[in-house]
UniProtKB/TrEMBL annotation:
Annotated PANTHER family: DEHYDRODOLICHYL DIPHOSPHATE SYNTHASE COMPLEX SUBUNIT DHDDS, DEHYDRODOLICHYL DIPHOSPHATE SYNTHASE FAMILY MEMBER
Annotated protein name in UniProt: Isoprenyl transferase
Active site: 33, 81 (proton acceptor)
Family: Belongs to the UPP synthase family. Z-FPP synthase subfamily.
GO molecular function: ditrans,polycis-polyprenyl diphosphate synthase [(2E,6E)-farnesyl diphosphate specific] activity; magnesium ion binding; Z-farnesyl diphosphate synthase activity
Phylogenetic placement of the source organism: Bacteria, Bacillati, Actinomycetota, Actinomycetes, Micrococcales
Record's function text: Catalyzes the condensation of isopentenyl diphosphate (IPP) with allylic pyrophosphates generating different type of terpenoids.
Co-factor: note: Binds 2 magnesium ions per subunit.
Length: 253
């Protein structure tokens, strides 16, 4: 092993040893951004960048397993992304389907799709539902795959579900409106029953959330990394976790 590789491995191991389990986030959300730019810089087709990003997702979940991260939400495809060319979307949907299959094959992670299923191709929607059922009893990392996801759409869907539930219970519009509060909306989110994300990571140098977990991220800590997602390394993840551990969380106060 070359000297630079030895030093790099030493630094990575030093970072890992310095992390205290009680200061690690329980739920990490990741905006896996930069696949298209990575492909462009490499002079490769866009699909090559999406595939490299998919391979990184599988690797990333392994890191989370090793570190004891319990819940991960991956922003894989937004509602805005659905406006891309039909050829790119077709390739991307295939890569996404293959990626969730690979995660499911491990038999170690629980997969839960979060997003507007009606916006997805029928076959992908069926695949996600099947994997969610097949991995329901897995006690490893809980992986939310945000596909066809938009934060505003999620809140609209939550309010709609709440109102439909109230209507089915025979409640008037006024009665339903009087019962709407934070807990009522939270119970109808795609991630209902889960803890809100402690840490949100975005790669590629962009410093915005782009509608990712709009409701759930109210008190999350944010970490922005310059690396494009396919180039995101374990040491980058460890740095994000160290940064999170060093912060004093105020939860809005």
């Amino acid at each position: 092993m070359r000297v630079p590789d030895v030093l790099y491995r030493f630094y990575e191991n030093s970072l890992a040893r310095g992390l205290s389990g009680d200061k690690l986030p329980h739920h990490v959300g990741v905006l896996v951004d930069g696949n298209r730019r990575w492909a462009k810089l490499a002079g490769a087709p866009t699909a090559h960048g999406h595939q490299a990003g998919a391979d990184k997702i599988v690797e990333f979940i392994t890191w989370c397993e090793e570190l004891g991260i319990k819940v991960v939400t991956l922003y894989m495809l937004s509602t805005d992304n659905l406006n891309r060319s039909s050829s790119e979307l077709e390739q991307l949907m295939g890569i996404i389907g293959n990626t969730v299959d690979r995660l499911g094959e491990s038999k170690r992670v629980r997969i839960q799709p979060v997003g507007a299923k009606d916006l997805l191709p029928v076959e992908l929607s069926k695949k996600l539902a099947q994997l969610a059922e097949e991995t329901r009893s897995c006690d490893g990392v809980h992986v939310n795959v945000a596909i066809g996801y938009g934060g505003r759409r999620e809140i609209v869907d939550a309010v709609r579900d709440f109102m439909l539930e109230a209507s089915a219970a025979g409640k008037s519009l006024d009665e339903a409106a009087s019962e709407i509060d934070v807990d009522a909306i939270s119970r109808h989110l795609y991630t209902k029953g889960q803890p809100d994300p402690d840490l949100l990571i975005r790669t590629s140098g962009e410093q915005r959330l782009s509608g990712f977990l709009t409701w759930q991220s109210a008190y999350s800590e944010f970490y922005f990394c310059e690396a494009l997602w396919p180039d995101f390394r374990r040491v980058d993840f460890l740095r994000a976790l160290r940064d999170y551990a060093d912060r004093q969380r105020r939860f809005g106060s």
